[in-house]
Write a structure and sequence with these properties.
Radius of gyration: 22 Å
Number of strands: 8
Protein name: YajG family lipoprotein
Shape: elongated
Largest sheet: 8 strands, mixed
Helix content: 25-40%
Strand content: 35-45%
InterPro entries: Uncharacterised_YajG (IPR005619)
Oligomer: single chain
Keywords: Lipoprotein, Signal
Distance between the termini: 83 Å
Length: 187
Amino acid sequence: MAKTLYSVATAGLLTILSGCAAAPKAVIMSPEYSAGQLVQLNTPLTVNVVDLRTSKFTVKVLDTEPAVYLPDANLPVTVSAVLEQALTANNANVVPEAKTNLTLEIHRFLAVVSESYSKHESNAEAEFKVSVSKGGNTFTKSYTGTRTLSGSLKHDQAKVEGQLNTLAEQLVMHIMEDKELTDFISQ
């Protein structure tokens, strides 16, 4: 009888304690390229996106539980999709193998949220490094961006996701607007 009571008590305690350890929430990323055609690339190229962040978290909420949110999709796949949308909109032919290779390295992509009882603020930062190799020559350049979001009461996850989507879209648009880069690809 004591053994059964001990087993029931242990199971109950484990159930209570496991409820306290909440799993990180998923962040849904879905940036869309909407700037249209900015340049005329007219070249086939291969696109590769690599995640070189030291921390794979996309959102960090300070002083709360859960403190971190994990992306629900693979961030390199998401960034690759919006980059390929931009390249296609600018008449590039994205193919699995080409003489022109574009590699985008994600060095930073994170929103840090601080909140109190009456307000919240989200500071998002991103750093992408683009390298294009073509005919033995290489062009490399870094692109950074920030976005700030603030409001009353607690943060809204959907708004922080929107902030990150907008940041990704803006960085890809800056990449497409970079005349040095587009000239290098087009030559």
